[in-house]
Amino acid sequence: MLLKTKPADVFVDRHNGPDSGAVAEMLRVIGVESIDQLIDETVPAAIRLKKPLNLPAALTERAFLAKFKQIAGQNRLFKNYIGLGYHDTQMPAVIQRNILENPGWYTAYTPYQAEIAQGRLEALINYQTMVIDLTGLEIANASLLDEGTAAAETLHMFHSLSKKKNATRYFVSELVLPQTVDVLRTRATPLGIELVVGDHRTADLTDEALFGAILQYPAADGQVFDYTDFIRQAHDNGQFVTVATDLLALTLLTPPGEMGADACVGNSQRFGVPMGYGGPHAGFLATKDAFKRVIPGRIIGQSIDAAGNKAYRMALQTREQHIRREKATSNICTAQVLLSVLAGMYAVYHGPQRIRQFAANIHALTRTLDKALHGLGVEQTNAFYFDTLNLRLESTDLQQAVKREAEAAGLNFRYFDAVRVGISLHQNTEISDVAGIVDVFAKVLGKEVQGLVELPTEVEVTWPENFVRQSDYLTHPIFNTHHSEHEMLRYMKQLENKDLSLVHSMIALGSCTMKLNATAEMIPVTWPEIGGLHPFAPREQAQGYTEIFHDLEKWLCEVTGFDAVSLQPNSGAQGEYAGLLAIKGYHDARGDQHRNVALIPASAHGTNPASAVMAGMTVVVVKSTEDGNIDVADLKAKAGQYADKLSCLMVTYPSTHGVYEETIIDICATIHQHGGRVYMDGANMNAQVGLTSPAAIGADVCHLNLHKTFCIPHGGGGPGVGPIGVVADLAPYLSGHVLIDADGRTAGAVTSAPWGSASILPISYAYINMMGGEGLQNATKIAILNANYIKARLEEHFPVLYTGSNGRCAHEMILDCRQFKKSGIEVEDIAKRLMDYGFHAPTVSFPVAGTLMVEPTESESKEELDRFIEAMISIRQEIAEVEAGRADAKDNLLKHAPHTAAAVLVHEWTRPYTREQAVYPTEYARTFKFWPTVARIDSAYGDRNLICSCTPIEQYVDAEEQLVSTDKGPSY
């Protein structure tokens, strides 16, 4: 007997769902002989790559993790006292293991189908409540991308709200975090807004051109100011005031809301989230109730379901850019859900007393350090502070001597203004650490430390009374109940059980690419070598990260065909914006500042026009043809009409309609002919990798959704990463950073951290490493195979709206459900009924109202595809019963969906179908039932009665006292 040897554990076989036998059967159903024939009939020959991807050979999981351990080991873990909005902290192990490392949480999708997302939604309500309580304001959103972009969002919001005509100036305190100022300047410049940076104590608020201001509390150098008078004067002059703040400090300090602030922004990182070399972290934005209709981002609100029970859902303007497009106030369509859940759970677990104790300990240690350094003759200039000392040394030489000695001891401080040293303490600081810091200064100064550095049992707060917080916070029972690990574990598991995620079933969302997030890809995320670095630490301490960035940029250049990549944007929307800024920078450098027209197809993702307006462009819409493609004649006419002003075309490829448009090369050439550049939205890169590329179709820049094509999990609605690739002549205009030399780039930052959400880039790094070039190409082929298999089996039941010239779809398709409306069945009814079958609905009514956009991804097996197909066919039969009059138009399975356990356990069943039909429509559902915990939610009620924080205490009812309402009939 001969034994042949070959690799037995190939990662691509783990990643792709169908095996060889399943592939053969699927090809037979589609009607082709091979995958290559299917690809030839689907992807236009003119845009196919001429050679395979030049990427490293694929590694096994074991080999990759061994290699990556060596790379990560190059990062040096110093003790960081740099501050500037990033602090060492401790994530409770029970939260790390059961949320951050739990696919039940990190593989879930954005909670657009709220009935099967009640766990995440409750966690986000907790987060909003935490932010509202600590800031002293009335409403908060469910997180933004980071502190700098949250500050920029308030700039946009208040500029749009200002009643002062021609007010184009915005005051920025010189003590605002420097990275925030950088992002503000980037966002303000395209809109013609001038930043006035100065001392808030001497600012001229009578300037009629000022529409608002932003302050930092505590300030970037650690000082604490009372801003009450400043805010009052600003209001007297018709200006809005934002205060950027630190949530932990607000457990001791008077909250900005009580000073009169209009908005409060910041970063919740120090509530248990690792620094991660800059991200991801949940930014926050709280504001007054008067601004609830214009606050950017997502807001979670409380409503009722069809049975009258409390239920959560996303409220108000959620995804408003899809409706308002270029009139939207923000291009943000994502958040940092997983990170806000972590921060909110930190508050739930620790409660107000323990969190306040963390703050008290930090302040006491800071006071102790101040006293010890004073004993050495070191001048500390902050009259009042929370956790940060501002030390002024006698010379630059002395400052540099401190730096050398500190780094030799493994300590990072902040060094600024030639002679200043900043030291910010944090939750993990011990008295021994304070003693170590004192020793550094003693050695440099050649002095002896007098006595032991000890932490006193009591420290008197010497702040003025108006600085000391008097108001209560985190008073709701949710923050005062789950303080033992056992109770916390059960609470998190209860919430997890309310949510459907990829651990239950496929989530076939078109344009969203819900593919496997392999465990081996996720493992390094929680390594200390990845999570423990401060984003502004010296770069020589981050050699491991430097290697990751370099390799990932090189590989993404190979995949896109471009010459340079920026990893900074921390969402797809930020990537769009950064790409447009690169185009704008290119035109401006050539003296073509007048080129400001962006051509955008009518079918484009709603963030496209919103991003263009934010970049200072004027949107001109290009028509679509009846078959869903770009109307080339209209595009050529408009490109010619606006030739002198043409800045760019924004295009998605394959199209948002799930088709490889064969005219794409001609389209791009037309734009170039008239002096414009082509921006390609990378939302559908999962249908390009290894087969074609943005460069191959003629694009100049594109953003890549690493949380789609490159396997970073969606996290229930975030984190996302949206790096951009560009051709060579656009590379000089990629995002830079004020504090870190990002490879010589000098353009402004679009996010707070130099490399955005650095700590989750290892996920995409792992994916590419373990797939290799051939594996990535095969994944694309299987994604196209899976989509066309679903199309072949469903098209006789649901018309497929758009296809290519050979009748093929790309990696996704649009099922037309509009014909059912005449029988009273809406596409929403189908979406809700799918929950009874154990599925999350495909994308509803985008890009065409009344349709479902289906994308299976390559990670789903034939068995799972068949289960989804059978569910859709079964639902089509249920619709046929209504069409034929055999089922009542209003009292039927679809209109009542989803069905909860409470709904079918009522004593008297009065509906015209059986309980079994309601909840066990298939044998699989009977065996592996996922129960929605609420019935269909009344969103309109929730918007009329907006509640965006935990239920008020006076209305709080213990869970054991709550009664489930009896069935109240269909929701219509």
TrEMBL record:
Catalyzed chemical reaction(s): N(6)-[(R)-lipoyl]-L-lysyl-[glycine-cleavage complex H protein] + glycine + H(+) = N(6)-[(R)-S(8)-aminomethyldihydrolipoyl]-L-lysyl-[glycine-cleavage complex H protein] + CO2
Record-linked Gene3D superfamilies: Aspartate Aminotransferase, domain 1 (3.90.1150.10), Type I PLP-dependent aspartate aminotransferase-like (Major domain) (3.40.640.10)
Record keyword Oxidoreductase present: yes
Enzyme Commission code(s) on record: 1.4.4.2
Entry keyword set: Oxidoreductase, Pyridoxal phosphate
Entry keyword Oxidoreductase: yes
Glycine cleavage system P-protein N-terminal domain boundaries: 13-441, 476-736
Principal EC category: oxidoreductase
Family assignment from sequence similarity: Belongs to the GcvP family.
Subunit structure: The glycine cleavage system is composed of four proteins: P, T, L and H.
PANTHER family: GLYCINE DEHYDROGENASE (DECARBOXYLATING), MITOCHONDRIAL, GLYCINE DEHYDROGENASE, DECARBOXYLATING
HAMAP family in alphabetical order: GcvP
Protein name, as recorded: Glycine dehydrogenase (decarboxylating)
Organism: Hymenobacter fastidiosus
Gene (UniProt): gcvP
